[in-house]
């Protein structure tokens, strides 16, 4: 069923046993990298002490670490590492869902305008000094408006080709960039403008536990719903008529997928700003590992996205004395990798 996804980068089919081995291996890798992220930085903490500090919250362990080590982990590194997991997994999951639903391997939250629309919504909320909950709501509305316009243009043109959808995303992205420029122009240079630039470049430096309390529940619920719908995504990939024959309410399923994927992207923007390439490249990497079946692809994409984002965050805060914006690193890695995929698979964009 998953083989019928248009533009699939890999026709690979693997057994359930092999899939379980790959998935368990990725989860173990993600857990290991999670602890490395807590230990590594400009202030290095021994990995044994890192694990002991966390376990001490549950078990009575005699301290062998300093209070500074514990403060660095709980106040700085733990919130941003959890955020990296949520953002990477969320963007990868939304990208895989969009690609499967639109049967288009070039689709991603970035190309559909979701990220830029969510960034505009968040920037407007920042401009009016609104709270984190309102920022998330406005980001979601902005992302939903952007993706709705992108999807509507091909329908108005009576052209549902891959190229038309990509061009629609370019049009909407250009429009959103212009609107974003206007918002920055009228923003206060001493307060709101600096925070807007933070959103545009992408960073986890300012994430704390309070931010996670607001955003994480929405991301977890939206992600869980998308994972529940992964079989229906397989059915949608067969075509609308076949899906209806199998008893799937196509309009309802598409609506749920768009809302959940957009909420994931908007929530990621709320936490760290605009981060490109994750939702485009990671699903393709997942297909190379487990094939196009969404029942296997979506869970793997979540774990791969989390691993990728944690590694990007470690690089951003460890490579130089000044922390690098996340979008710079994801672009430097994502663009060449995606170009490699295009060459390797000889994929046509039309």
Automatic annotation (TrEMBL):
Keyword Transport (UniProt): yes
Keywords annotated in UniProt: Cell membrane, Membrane, Transmembrane, Transmembrane helix, Transport
Annotated CDD domains: TM_ABC_iron-siderophores_like
Membrane topology note: Multi-pass membrane protein
A GO cellular component entry from the record: plasma membrane
GO terms, biological process: siderophore-iron import into cell
MF terms in GO: transmembrane transporter activity
Keyword Repeat: no
Localization (cell): Cell membrane
Sequence intervals crossing the membrane: 21-45, 51-74, 81-99, 137-157, 163-187, 212-233, 253-285, 297-318, 324-343
Family under the similarity heading: Belongs to the binding-protein-dependent transport system permease family. FecCD subfamily.
Protein's job: Required for corrinoid utilization. Probably part of the ABC transporter complex BtuCDF involved in cobalamin (vitamin B12) import. Probably involved in the translocation of the substrate across the membrane.
Subunit (UniProt): The complex is composed of two ATP-binding proteins (BtuD), two transmembrane proteins (BtuC) and a solute-binding protein (BtuF).
Protein name: Cobalamin import system permease protein BtuC
Organism annotation: Methanocorpusculum labreanum (strain ATCC 43576 / DSM 4855 / Z)
Lineage: Archaea, Methanobacteriati, Methanobacteriota, Stenosarchaea group, Methanomicrobia
